[in-house]
TrEMBL record:
UniProt xrefs under InterPro entries: DUF38/FTH_CAE_spp, F-box_dom
CDD domains, per database record: F-box_CeFBXA-like
Lineage: Eukaryota, Metazoa, Ecdysozoa, Nematoda, Chromadorea
Occurrences of domain F-box (ranges): 4-53
Organism domain of life: Eukaryota
Name this protein carries in UniProt: F-box domain-containing protein
Amino acid sequence: MASELSLLQMPDVALNEIVKKCDYISIQTLRKVCRDLRNFIEHLKPDYQFTNVSIELDPYSLELTFNDSDDEEKEITIRYRHDGSHCYVSLVKPSGKNSEHLLNTNYIDCFCRDFAIAMSSQKSIIQQFTLSLPVDFYMKSSAGDLLKKLKAGNLLLKVRSVVLLTKWTSMIVRFLQILDPNYLETIKIGRNDYWTMKEITEICQLEHFKKAKELEILQSFFLNCPVENFSHFEKLTVWYMIVTADILRSLKQVCPDV
């Protein structure tokens, strides 16, 4: 009776087809089998085709959510929990499992490493990317550390629509810089705050802002800047705390039909 072949004994063509049939969780499991299999997967770069990606940071953890459809039942959520100098990694969805305890590992470093691996295999355009950062001022350094490390990974993600839930314009600027401006069409921004002229100008100078077609700044954001900054958008929702005669005149010039 012939002995069964192990995965590594299979021809590359066969192994290639097996990996193509695996979902994200299965591939991450295969990566942990041995170095040779991990190297094979990294060379192959399987296409995950995620349509929705979300990053959520809170005072104690980071959550990364992937979905390859609009069906929430198919979501994959991985939690990276801060524990002093250690990190707990757990699969929250679809089934949940015991945490993996990584000693002497920073949870943001662990997250960024896994995120970079996943995104390096993302060949299709992400339809919506959501970034949610806490309002708490004391979490600003952690949020800044996260975005600094994401940017250091030289990522340039193809994203159609981005939802930025943060009060800090510096975080918005940093995150937009890891997105390819040639693909970004819609920008949505929310969290309770008031923007100064200097802050909105910083965002307006980005290519992402100039090339996007739609902008929605949620009601809790109040602006103090010229209407002309938004004249190129095909669809626009912004909120002004005070509407002056100058703003109305500018609006009439930008949108004669209004």
